[in-house]
Design a protein that fits this description.
Two copies of one chain form a homodimer. The first copy, chain A, is an alpha/beta fold. Helix content of chain A is about 45%, strand content about 20%. Chain A has helices at about 40-55, 80-85, 100-110, 150-165, 170-180, 185-195, 195-200, 205-210, 215-235, 250-255, 260-265, 275-285, 290-295; strands spanning about 5-10, 15-20, 25-30, 70-75, 95-100, 115-120, 125-130, 130-135, 245. In chain A, strand 4, helix 2 and strand 5 form a beta-alpha-beta unit. The longest helix of chain A has 21 residues, at about 215-235. The interface between A and B is medium-sized, with 32 and 32 residues. Chains A, B: GO terms for molecular function: kinase activity. Chains A, B: This is N-acetylglucosamine kinase. Chains A, B: Keywords: Kinase, Transferase.
């Protein structure tokens, strides 16, 4: 039996799926963070931990990990030599390390051409056209990731301070934010000083909620973000009828706000990124036999 | 002899002026940073160091520091209890601690009503109307300080990445920035990851230079910043003919770009902040006698 392994690893946790050679998932396992940008060795250990948990859950001996073939989708795998460095450290017979965006695209669109925008704390565009996969955006909160939750939250704090100073009009939303900080602008400054992108992102749901209530500040900020996201789509999407999925924590909130030309192409993701990793493992390691097994 | 001391202290250095009771500056002295936000004790030592240097340069015994009256303008003095805490630690007979914006306003406008905008790495508005002095903006790079050098530089790096991805048009300016980073967007990300506000601000002069050459990206970013600064002025300036000065490293670059309604009120700063501190010391500690000595 040639087992396949799919891995979906990020800064919070690592998930593994054990599948048979046809891609049927037998069991999954989970462990801690697999952030290869900050701690390669811990990432390696948690990848192994999640994999062994999946094998154990399926009743398969973990001694067979060494004979399995794996596809891994990991945040930061496309930066510098991170992916290649990890690939050499893994316990599998064969392993391919991709950026997390690649397995997300495969999961969402299957084998079809198209674009996914992953909009969570950040924002990144992944487009497949035949054999070619291209990335755009996603350079991080400080100088990129427009439309992502961190940028939205930061923008909201800025608008709250502009309203406090009378530079811009206040609204029910900026009033609510100011109350959260005890009416004290210095508390906003203090929060912002040490806030992670995720911390800023905690304000994003509030923005969508107030936008749905026609709060003018929320409508303006969300409207600008929708325009930013569509500028990205204008640049990366072919003008044909290829598919579009919005993923990540904010994807489903942006979907209904898109212009008709993009809403028409929007589809729910077919599967999650972990399933996408397993599908890619089938493509790469099970060869032509797969078609037969599926057929 | 009742000596007066003016202090202008910030994150880079601390300057002191020794003056007679009429405000005539006898000598100045300089020392290291006086950042009361990050290190109160070092700030105190450098304030004393600059003061003793001024006394020595004037040929006055430093034993007379203890009988002098001082006005200090220090960044961060208006945050929490910083100013009051320092005031209790100082070696002078009398001491008043103000925010650096107050001595800058006094220096620039003298005793007249009006507004100064200090636009360097950050941006802050200080307005005097009779006895009242109000601050606006200046909440820091992360959520405020629109038009400041750090925000301009960050915006430029964002535009450079948007041009790299084809989301926005490129220009000679974004091409030049990309070349600075070896044509590698990851190098921009790496720079931004650890850049201080001052590091981002190093790109601001380049923006003004390219705007003067009609580079469309530079014109758009500088134009937006001018609008941001004027939104602030609309909010804080009385509609009478009170005066306006633009201070800080970018002040003289923004001046010519203001709308006619503000350019008409613009004037060169009369004096520097250190002289402003001495003037305030005269007002507070020399009383009516000053008028006589000046007359």
């Amino acid at each position: 039996m040639n087992y396949l392994v799919g891995i979906d690893g990020g800064g919070t946790s690592c998930r593994a799926a054990l599948a048979d050679a046809g891609g049927r998932i037998l069991a999954t396992g989970k462990s801690g963070s697999a952030n290869i940008m900050t701690d390669m060795n811990t990432a390696r250990l948690n990848i192994l931990g999640a994999t062994e948990a999946a094998f154990t859950a399926a009743g398969v001996s973990t001694s067979l990990v060494a004979s399995a073939s794996a596809v891994l989708g990991l945040a930061g795998a496309n930066v510098g030599g991170n992916g290649a460095q990890l690939q050499a450290m893994l316990p599998f017979k064969n392993a391919l390390v991709y950026s997390d965006g690649v397995i997300a695209l495969q999961g969402a669109l299957g084998d079809a051409d198209g674009t996914v925008v992953i909009v969570g704390t950040g924002s990144v565009y992944v487009t497949r056209s035949g054999e070619e996969i291209r990335f755009a955006g996603g350079w991080g909160f400080k100088v990129s990731d427009l439309g992502g939750g961190a940028r939205l939250g930061r923008d909201l704090l800025e608008e709250t301070l502009l309203a406090y100073d009378g530079f811009h009009p206040s609204s029910a939303l900026t009033d609510a934010v100011m109350r959260r900080f005890g009416g004290n602008p210095h508390q906003i400054v203090q929060f912002a000083h040490s806030a992670s992108p995720g911390d800023f992102g905690t304000f994003a749901p509030m923005l969508f909620e107030y936008a749905s209530l026609d709060d003018p500040v929320a409508v303006a900020l969300i409207g600008r973000s929708v325009r930013n996201i569509e500028e990205g789509l204008d640049a990366v999407m072919p003008s044909d009828d290829s598919r579009l999925s919005l993923l990540g924590g904010l994807g489903s909130l942006y979907g209904p706000l898109l212009s008709p030309r993009y809403k028409a192409r929007l589809q729910e993701p077919l599967n999650d990124p972990l399933t996408g990793a397993v599908q890619l493992a089938v493509h790469h390691f099970s060869g032509a036999g797969v078609e037969h097994m599926h057929g």
